[in-house]
Design a protein that fits this description.
The protein has 343 residues and is of the alpha+beta class. The protein contains ten helices and eight strands. The strands form three sheets. Strands 1-3-2 form a three-stranded mixed beta sheet. A three-stranded antiparallel beta sheet has the order 7-6-8, with no helix packed on it. Strand 6 and strand 7 form a beta hairpin. The N and C termini lie far apart (62 Å).
Amino acid sequence: MATDLGKRRSPALEQMQRLVASYDLFNKELFSNQLPPVWLDLRNKPGSYGYFQANKWKDANGNLLDVISLDSKTAAERPLIELLSTLVHEMAHAYDFHIVNERKARPTHSAEWRREMERLGLPPVQVGSTWRQATHRIDPDGLYARTFAKHQAALQALPWQECIGTANRGRGVDRVKFQCPQCGFNAWAKAAGELHCGFCSTPQELVAMLPEYRPHGGGGKGKPGRATAKREHYAEPSGVPALPVYTDELGRELRLHTGLDYPPKDKVDALLVMTFGVKERKPELLPPLTAAIEEQDWEAMDAALKAVYRHRCQVLHPDVEGGSEVAFKALQTAYLILKRGKR
């Protein structure tokens, strides 16, 4: 394949210098140049668009350097305003560590970090029942959005996109992709298999990996696959799934499928997400759930919740026509909130 690579400067410099230029610009415009230099890189961490690590590197004189990593698989394909909002999200962690807390460890998404994100015009969004995991949305009138619009001509998209291998490489083999609903780790095995995530499972609770639904393909050389995974085979979620950066567009998509424009935070939100549209599609599922809640019959509630969850999976799964990945993840979060907080 023809290439002009020999005529270009170092690809690594070309990629990283654009990230460094964005970091320096936002450090000046949003943080008054208070943040120290950091080690910027691109790497894949399942379930995350980026992360901040304090004191990751050290030189011969004992000087410490922090790391900000952005997800290598999605960095070049995401809209630039979303990608750089993740960079600023991680810069807010650096601000919390260096300026607010004077280089002392603290909870990742602390109250001070959340206030800083509000100031930046990137309101944080809690994922699950605690702030252990969090994403954010972009306020179109906020400080970050205004700064991005002002300097958009100077902010350049990344020129290099990581190549992602195909999911099924076998020929005529019943193999599908399994994914951990908690950390996003992938594995491939026969569709009839039962896989558990080795990273997220504990002796007290095994985290089941979810099989991919593949009605066609995977056989090699254009032959149909023999995968037997069905949408109704999806196991109950064992952990809170990661959610993307929350834009107004995603909020509208979520509201269309769940009635909320944000991830469910409590049992009231979760019940709305779980039952949204069920009255029109399968009204017979609602009376058992309502009766179990009123009578506080936990065993009956478990069965009724599971039935509603299975139905909603069939409606919202991304492989279904009209489904939605963000709504499917919100459904998993809602199910966990209701199941863990029913007593």
